[in-house]
Design brief:
It is a multi-pass membrane protein. By secondary structure, this protein is mainly α. It is built from 9 helices and 2 strands, in the order βαααααααβαα. Helix 8 crosses helix 9.
């Protein structure tokens, strides 16, 4: 494929950041399910032993939050809801049929919902996780507060797992999305179809760069 026929969507640092979040999520989610469901205790071995999992699980969670925070600071402006997102949402029946509507920028309404749901879930997980984190912080809180934090932590974890499952499904459903996060580029035709406004912005940037001496 010629260079002109493809657009850079994510740089190498952006992709590394994304896969750090993904890897931490897998370790945290699997070990967390092992804590929550007795029949899933074997999942704790993903971090070595059950004892080691109890030690490492919160640290993995903190790394995941820190890595996602970098993503948040980098992408939050592009994930603000605008008029085109309302059009996209009203025509969700067409989206399901793999038809594109509206003048979508770098992210569509569905992707934006995943982004904001993920950051809200992660904030809730971090705050509640600190309250229940033994032996470092839990001793500073009352038993009722720790119990409430356990509920919040569990509900937030389930919410995040569902959000990530939707994210993975959408990435597999829209052909070409995986390539963007693995190799960093997308075909120009893909960008024009799924993210027309972002496509025009990138083409304009390319044209300006080509005109420079």
């Amino acid at each position: 494929m010629k260079k002109r026929d493809r657009l850079v969507r994510y740089s190498a640092p952006e992709r590394i950041n994304h896969w750090i979040v993904a890897l931490c999520f897998v370790f945290a989610a699997l070990s967390g399910l092992g804590f929550f469901f007795p029949s899933f205790n074997w999942l704790m071995h993903v971090l070595g032993t059950p004892q080691l999992a109890r030690i490492l699980h919160p640290f993995v969670g903190v790394v995941m939050f820190a890595a996602f925070l970098i993503m948040f600071l980098r992408y939050w402006r592009q994930n603000l809801i605008n008029r085109e997102d309302i059009i996209w949402a009203k025509n969700i029946h067409k989206i399901v049929r793999n038809e594109e509507v509206g003048d979508t920028g770098k992210y569509n309404f569905g992707q934006k919902c995943v982004f904001w749901a993920a950051i809200i879930s992660l904030v809730m997980l971090l705050v509640s996780g600190i309250v229940i984190w033994r032996p470092y912080f839990a001793g500073a809180f009352s038993i009722p507060l720790i119990r409430a934090a356990l509920v919040v932590h569990s509900v937030s974890a389930v919410a995040l797992i569902i959000v990530i499952m939707v994210h993975i499904y959408a990435a597999l459903w829209v052909k070409g999305t995986i390539t963007a996060m693995v190799e960093g580029w997308v075909p120009a035709a893909w960008a024009k179809k799924h993210h027309p406004r972002w496509y025009r912005e990138q083409r304009q940037r390319q044209t300006q760069q080509e005109k420079r001496p």
